[in-house]
Each structure stands twice: as structure tokens, then as C-alpha cells.
Design brief:
191 residues; alpha/beta; Dihydrofolate Reductase, subunit A; 8-stranded mixed beta sheet; two-stranded antiparallel ribbon; 10 strands; 19% helix
């Protein structure tokens, strides 16, 4: 069965973006980038990977899930299909996507993910945002957190509002970089 992987950059105080979706404070230069780009090339926007000469073969992930706000980040810049090398699903009940390469869904994200997990293929990447992550928390099999040496103070939390419901994950690997970025991977403990 395919895994749902929540792979995301996060500040030390638990935010994946600023209060208005800002993410430009995250470090995109430094020794951490070579490791991230090698291990997670499929999570780089297609145009960026092409510009950098990074091959994307869909071996790690082949599907990306986004909430509307995550998808909409690129729209003012004319980016209507950010991950055109992947199957792209955007969860929205009120917006239309501007590309035939992107699927919009108003369905319950949990039901969609359960169907996707039953299909053949590589992992499913939960790109963001925090509200969608909160909805899908029980379906997440693996967390890969790119902890950045930053405090945001406020913003969009890693997991939006969700009721108190402890769920256990085991750390399976951590790499600390000189840049201060720490990439930690966790697997869900299933009963």
C-alpha cells in the first residue's frame, strides 16, 4: 500500500508559513540543499528542477496533495501547474484550478487519500497546508520535517486546528546541516 508523506519545511516554533502565507524566510541556500534535492527531487517544482538540471523520476512520490492556499501561491506568478511531473490534486470547494494538469476536488480528503493509497505507485506527498494536514493527520504514514533555524512568532501551524488526540511516530533518521537546518523523518506507529 502507498504511504502518505507529509514533507514540509517548519520553523522552530511550528509554523509552515507566516500569517499571510509567507515562506520567503526559509533558507533555500546552504549545505542542506544538496541533500534535500538529492533525496526529495520529486518535491521540487518542475520548472525549478529543470532550471537547476535536477532529474525528477517520480520514484519517491508520484502524487502531490495541496490545499487551495498552498496551490494559489504560484497563481500571481502565472504558475498554474507547479508540479507538472506529478499527479496534482488540490482540495477546494469553492475555487476552480486554471490547468488541465491539476485536479480539483471538493471530496472529503480522507476518502480521497484512502482511494489513492489503494492504487499502485510511489508515495503520496502532502505538500500543505496546515488545515489539510490536520484533516489528514490520521492518514499520515511518514513525517519528513525540514526544521529551519527560525522563529516565526505566528503563522500557519504545521497542523492546523485539531482536537487533542496524541498519535505516536518513531524517528527513523535525522540529518543536521551546518546551515542549521535539520531534516528529521518519522514513521507512524500503528497498533
Amino acid at each position: 500500500m502507498r504511504e502518505l508523506v507529509y514533507y514540509v519545511a517548519v520553523s522552530l516554533d511550528g509554523f509552515i508559513a507566516g500569517p499571510h502565507g509567507e515562506f520567503d524566510a526559509f533558507l533555500v541556500e546552504g549545505d542542506h540543499m544538496d541533500g534535500i534535492n538529492a533525496d526529495w527531487a520529486d518535491t521540487i517544482p518542475t520548472a525549478v528542477a529543470e532550471h537547476l538540471g535536477i532529474a525528477q523520476n517520480r520514484s519517491v512520490v508520484d502524487t502531490v496533495l495541496m490545499g487551495w492556499n498552498t496551490y494559489a501561491v504560484g497563481l500571481p506568478h502565472g504558475v498554474v501547474s507547479p508540479y507538472r511531473h506529478l499527479r496534482q490534486l488540490v482540495f477546494t470547494g469553492s475555487h476552480a484550478v486554471e490547468s488541465d494538469e491539476v485536479e480539483a476536488s471538493a471530496e472529503n480528503p480522507v476518502e480521497v487519500v484512502r482511494r489513492l493509497k489503494a492504487e499502485e505507485g510511489a508515495a503520496i506527498w502532502l505538500c500543505g497546508g496546515g488545515a489539510l494536514a490536520a484533516t489528514l493527520a490520521g492518514e499520515i504514514d511518514r513525517l519528513v520535517l525540514k526544521r529551519q533555524p527560525l522563529l516565526f512568532g505566528s503563522g500557519i501551524p504545521l497542523f492546523g486546528s485539531r482536537p487533542y488526540a496524541p498519535e505516536r511516530f518513531d524517528e527513523v533518521g535525522t540529518t543536521a546541516y551546518r546551515s542549521g537546518v535539520v531534516v528529521s523523518e518519522f514513521e507512524r506507529i500503528r497498533d
